[in-house]
Amino acid sequence: MAPRILVAEDDPSVRLTIGFVLEDEGFEVLMAPDGQAALQMALESLPDVILLDQMMPKMDGKEVLKALRADESTKNIPVLVLSGMSRGSDEEWPGAVFVGKPFAPDALIEHIRAAVG
Questions:
Q1: Helix axes 105-116, 12-24, angle to 10 degrees
Q2: Cα–Cα dist 23/20, whole Å
Q3: At what angle do helices 61-70 and 35-45 cross, to 10 degrees?
Q4: Which of 19, 52, 59, 96 has its CA 20 to 30 A from that of 85?
Q5: What is the mean predicted confidence (pLDDT) over 7-30?
């Protein structure tokens, strides 16, 4: 079965581009336009990896990550934070791996494959 990847990104063009790249690589892709939708989708579908934008409406990436880490069912899901900004401390982003924006599709796929195992 193909690994399920949740893409949480508020920019529709970036979200769709990432979705196309991941689908071409054989991943099952779920897409969320904001942090609140991302958290709900993560809790319902339990993806294998979450790509989380740092700055989103309704809930930002840090708030989503905190909620994911607090829930028993999602606390161990690998999270890749997509950001063009500074990353912050490990305490602020527990267990997250940062992927800088802009990113090369091949590098993103490498990060995902490493996270999936």
A1: 60
A2: 5
A3: 30
A4: 19
A5: 95
In the chain, what is the greatest distance between 2 CA atoms, to the nearest angstrom? 35
CA–CA distance, 100 with 98 (Å, rounded to integer): 6
CATH code, residues 4-103: 3.40.50.2300
- Which DSSP helix (H) or strand (E) runs through 30? strand 28-32
Q: Which of 64, 68, 41 is nearest to 53 (CA)?
A: 64
Per-residue pLDDT tens digits for 78-103: 999 987 766 666 677 788 888 877 78
Each residue of 29-77: pLDDT tens digit? 999 999 999 999 999 999 999 999 988 999 999 999 999 999 999 999 9
Q: CA-CA distance, 101 to 3, in Å (whole number)?
A: 23
What is the CA angle 34-38-42, rounded to 5?
A: 180
pLDDT value of position 90: 65
